[in-house]
Write a structure and sequence with these properties.
heterodimer, A: mainly beta, 6-stranded mixed beta sheet, 11 strands, globular, B: mainly beta, 7-stranded mixed beta sheet, 4-stranded antiparallel beta sheet, about 55% strand
Chain lengths: ~110, ~110
């Protein structure tokens, strides 16, 4: 079946790098996504990666994709307090633009 | 530019009362529309999606229903709320036919059923 798994919590010190990991099941996903949810708000697309890529870098964000292991990671360099949020990994599922989301990883950044 | 609205932002309802949450999208046509629920401390659960007016697909059996009376309007309803219906309800839209299945989310409605 379809399932996206993430660790639920990550705590890092301000200025350090954060790495959030995700495993997915649908190898036919053309794109994989990372969304960010700040407290009390909806989700915002943070970044995505095309399935034929191994890595994508966008400023402080680096996405790594290991298709063999169905493993996706999001690295945030120089983590700031404003990065504190819940981060969701998502894979595509079937038609009609359906996405399957993980449970979300709550990132806490402390001084 | 496209925007998505949800209301109300918060709602407290007694068990057994009806529910109507509304979502509207501006600045686009023929969007795919979605309703998700996020229970406390849990991930997103897709409840319904729609690819056109009057076309609703339900993902999980539940106490809720959805309707799409207009192209850019998506309504989530219940005749009688249960305690387990409490949660954060998110509406989202995506561009139909876009190979990149990017979804854009509204601000959400926090529903508390007492």
């Amino acid at each position: 079946g379809e399932d996206v798994e993430q660790s639920l919590f990550l705590s890092v010190r301000e200025g350090d790098s954060s790495v959030i990991n995700c495993t997915y099941t649908d190898s036919s996903s053309t794109y994989l996504y990372w969304y960010k949810q700040e407290p009390g708000a909806g989700l915002q697309l943070l970044t995505y990666i095309f399935s034929n890529m191994d890595m994508k870098q966008d400023q402080r964000l680096t996405v790594l994709l290991n298709k063999k292991d169905k493993h996706l990671s999001l690295r945030i360099a120089d983590t700031q307090t404003g990065d504190s949020a819940i981060y969701f990994c998502a894979e595509e599922s079937g038609g009609y633009n359906k996405l399957i989301f993980g449970a979300g990883t709550r990132l806490a950044v402390h001084p | 530019s496209q925007t998505i609205h949800q209301w109300p932002a918060t709602l407290v309802q007694p068990v057994g009362s009806p529910l109507s949450l509304e979502c509207t999208v501006e600045g686009t046509s023929n969007p795919n529309l979605y309703w998700y629920r996020q229970a406390a401390g849990r991930g997103l659960q897709l409840l319904f999606y729609s690819v056109g007016i009057g076309q609703i697909s339900s993902e999980v059996p539940q106490n809720l229903s959805a309707s799409r009376p207009q192209d850019r309007q998506f309504i989530l309803s219940s005749k009688k709320l249960l305690l387990s219906d409490s949660g954060f309800y998110l509406c989202a839209w995506s561009i139909r036919g876009n190979p990149r299945n990017e979804q854009f989310f509204g601000p959400g409605t926090r529903l508390t059923v007492l």
